[in-house]
Amino acid sequence: MPHTEPHSPRQTSQPSGQKDRLSAAPDTLFVYGSLQFPEVLFALIDRVPAHTPAQAAGWRVAELPGRVYPGLVSGPTTAPGYLLTGLTAEEWRVLDAFEDPVYDLRRLDLVDGRHGWSYTCNFGAEVLETNWSAETFARDHLPAYIERCTAWRHRHEAKNQAS
């Protein structure tokens, strides 16, 4: 079912859009889905940045149809995740290239007063009514997803070296 709710009023900036989303590397990244798994981060950027638990009120982590990873959409709940800090500009570029075009990069206020940039679903993106489960993802999909991330990274690096 298509997502029709307006985005949460807790955002403090407009979406940056797909083109040139990272004119300057943001300071923090709120992760709530596959990027909260150290193994995924390591497959993509060769390390696990400093991270602390965080929550975003007014958002929910929704299942996306046909995908094993979730989307962050406005909702009446609080989305759990982690706040990554200390990402380099190159790591931001890799993560931004990795993210699906269904996402916009937005700055969110977190429940503890901090803020973090996060990849939220575009308005109109199709999401399911059910919430995504990190436990189910870890149990049923994580090893294959890590392989996909590793293969994506190799293709990404080869493409960048060719250009």
UniProtKB/TrEMBL annotation:
Pfam families: GGACT. InterPro entries: AIG2-like, AIG2-like_dom, GGCT-like, GGCT-like_sf. Transmembrane segments: none annotated. Residues 1-21 are annotated as: Disordered. Keywords: Transferase. Coiled coil: none annotated. CDD domains: GGCT_like. Residues 29-122 form the Gamma-glutamylcyclotransferase AIG2-like domain. This is Putative gamma-glutamylcyclotransferase. It comes from Actinocorallia longicatena.
